[in-house]
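User: Can you help me understand a structure? I only have the sequence.
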Amino acid sequence: MTPAEAPTDLLYGRLILCSGTANQPLAAEIAAYLKTALHPVEIRQFANSNTFVRLDKSVRGCDVFWVQPTSAPANDNLMELLIAIDCLRRDSAGRITAVVPYYGYGRSDKKDQPRVPITARLVADMLTTAGADRVLTMDLHAGQIQGFFHIPVDDITARHHLADWVKRSDITDGVVLSPDLGHAKDARYFADEVDMPLALVEKRRSKDGGNTEALNLIGEVEGKDVLIVDEEIDTAGTMVHAAEFAIQRGAKRVYALATHAILSPPAIERLRSSPFERVVVTNSCYLPPEKHLPCIEVLPIGALLGEVIHRIHTGQSVGAMFNE
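Assistant: Let's start by predicting it. Here is the structure, written out as tokens:
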């Protein structure tokens, strides 16, 4: 993948790419695709844990993209992003795009019980108030989160990357399994893309959200390779339970595919003892060495995000990328 041909009449100044501390390897991938260097910045924490951000060079009038997923530690990474956006705004950046490959607090997208916040909306307000002009994110937990913003939001998907992996694999007699009825629609899109049938797990989640119980399997998995697809793997409880359920129903092999590898404890222990042949994720979130397992395969998305950034900067269609 190489950057598309750029128009000559740009609406904003030159493209500037910056990175927070949350996923610097991904930012370096994006920079390599765009054939540019990351803008020099200083980011550190004072002894009292307050975050400090300083630009080494001015970005006045420039089109700035700041890469910072808000995965764990979510509060630190989110606060760092907000401070960075304010720093860019006060330096008179021409336009500020928050590149948030993983949108933390995205699962708090509705008031599903009494006396709880809608934190996904609060984060949207905070990003806007800080000074972001637009947001680039990937595979939001719920599509309606885009409506929480009063600024443009590009929510792109890694589904095609994951589907390409399936097409390159030795999986021929497969079925796509959604571990949650709430994500059946996304699983259907994926099943269509890899030309496989769809199966669904009906489950019940505990009131604290920590445990799930599989109740029923809708579809046929016996003797088949089962691809369990979700937008993220957090504690891996949902994925592992779905895999064990599929094996009990006669599945031959099971695979996990997800965009975001959060892998909060006890995910690594669960995956290590799970029946998964392969766990395929992207590098939307930084995966430290202690979270690498032999079964985990990480797909790079730097080129994908780089092309989207290039198109935003040059005023070209982003949607056309996924319709070509």
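Now, to help you interpret it: Residues 74-90 form the longest helix (17 residues). The domain at 15-158+302-322 is CATH 3.40.50.2020 (Rossmann fold). Let me know which part you'd like to focus on.
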